[in-house]
């Protein structure tokens, strides 16, 4: 007689991995700005990433622990047999497959160009391993949004905050939420009646009898805090110095920008956020492309970034307009009237500094505040940054990549009570 033995299904090891935790650990790899390329031999200006690079990043994430049971990870990594290496590779391939199925990444095959038969080695056509190594991927908007959410959650957790509302000001107006003493109704107010005060006025005028006759002077409405909107341009320095000197400063800056974008989209829907990258020149970049941006040329054209930010803010009909500038270096480039770029990386060039401060003064005349977040501790730059803050009545923060997010979010949300219309 034939028997069938059933056993408990334990599932595949890759199915036990929390994809969101894996995405969080791969955040620096997905947002990498060219810093790792100094050690892995990848071109700093090539934003494309291969599946083989992703495999290596997943292996490093798995080696950190907690994603897989310790006994299973030790079995896969400590054994030197070819079978264990094959199992580990199958595990990573399965994780990549899950990332694609869940919509975190998209795989892309590069264009294939086959050379003439007389120039090919026999048996070299159609090499599957080479095709797999050359397959590239790109992260999706789902991954970008998730990284912004996790960064924002971590930053707010460190600040001890749980939730935030919209930008409040000292002005009072009628609305849905009551925030002050009620007052007499005026034509044009939101009809958010204070029922008790209205009935009291009617009874005091006509006496206590039924029915109560309510007249126009009896109407009382609640007052609420007047909530304003803010237009922000985030100026991000992407010059080469942001990844030099043994520290990656650009990736944390991108993380903070993603968190700020998520905060505005979810908590301040009336606000707007634009991104400007400045290096030898300046350019506006869609927020959806922020995660794919890497460092660019060597010089820092702060003046051109301010000019572009002013043009963007001049089109925004908001109550508050501000520029948030994140940089680690001195202004070292200037766009001349004929379009040529004047460059001088040695010291604070008087021409560059003068023209940059003149642009700062124009921002103040336009009612635009500039808050500068300096990621360097060079004492020669302290006076320049303080001068910028003094001219535009903004603030200067001398911070590090580790505390940048806390300072920036605290500054952004503290404006709720400092602007009067």
Q: Low-confidence parts, pLDDT < 50 over ≥5 residues?
A: 38-47, 122-129, 161-178, 416-421
Arithmetic mean of pLDDT: 76
Range of helix content: 25-40%
In CATH, the topology of the largest domain is named: Rossmann fold
The count of strands amounts to 14
Main sheet properties: 6 strands, mixed
Number of domains: 3
Question: For this structure, what is the CATH class of the largest domain?
Answer: Alpha Beta
Distance between the termini: 89 Å
Label the overall shape: flat
Structural class: alpha/beta
- From the alpha carbons, calculate the radius of gyration and give it in angstroms: 29 Å
Secondary structure tally, helices: 14
The CATH superfamily title of the largest domain: von Willebrand factor, type A domain
Q: Give the spatial strand order of the biggest sheet.
A: 9-8-7-10-13-14
Assigned CATH architecture of the largest domain: 3-Layer(aba) Sandwich
Q: Write the H/E string, N to C.
A: HHHEHHHEHEHEEHEEHEEHEEEHEHEH
